[in-house]
Fold this protein.
Amino acid sequence: MTAFAPDWLYLREPADAAARATELLDPLRAHLTDDFTVRDLGCGTGSLGRWLAARLPGTQHWILHDHDTELLTHAQASLPGTALDGSPVDVVAEQRDVTALRAADLAGTSLVTASALLDLLTRDEITALATAVVEAGCAALLMLSVTGKVELSPADPLDPAIAAAFNAHQRRIAENGRRLLGPNAVDVAATAFGRLGATVRRADSAWRLGPDQAELQRQWLEGWVAAAVEQLPQLRPVADVYLQRRLEMAAAGELHAVIHHGDLLVLPPSLEVAA
């Protein structure tokens, strides 16, 4: 799995929090019991746990999974100690490969969560995750998966070419031979869960970056263009000039960016709740 620096994860956390689809929370709250267990897959620094635990009532037992022990240490120490209604929240951390989880591993789990994870998985890995979740009778809240659509204002003639190359990079075959789903991940996951009989609700969760987020704009732009050039090296001469132009606009407070993501709430058929 891809490793991310803690500084980047902390920098993006406010944009993540603002983007998350809050409309999925009411149906989630409606079926959770007063005492439940959450497994957060690929937890990073724990940003989803920090956001979600305080928005759900009831006694909560969080199990954080990541392959990175440094991130696990950050995450375990940072989740809130109390839930929405003041009930206690406890947290444990487990280093493990989240792509290897099966239904037996999810025994006793009420909710599986993940943020910015699905687009890093393969079709087989998402199918296996959906199978594990449904067979274990869990709900799932899977947030902030890239969908490939980016809107920059003011527009630039090179925007479509950079976006297309970036999206192709997100769908690349990784060094270990894994074909990543990238922007196709939300559709693939929704289909996989639906075929297994789960109820799937989808919502948009776009980053909306304005002039007050110039540093996040800068780091996102650098990563976005670098991935595009890695995928299509012949873009480099024009991409270097493009990036400089865009960075100058961000520094001057002239750039607005909307980076689209998708969120999924998955409820087992027996736990379907009317909207």
The CA atoms of residues 42 and 66 lie 5 Å apart. The longest helix spans residues 214-231.
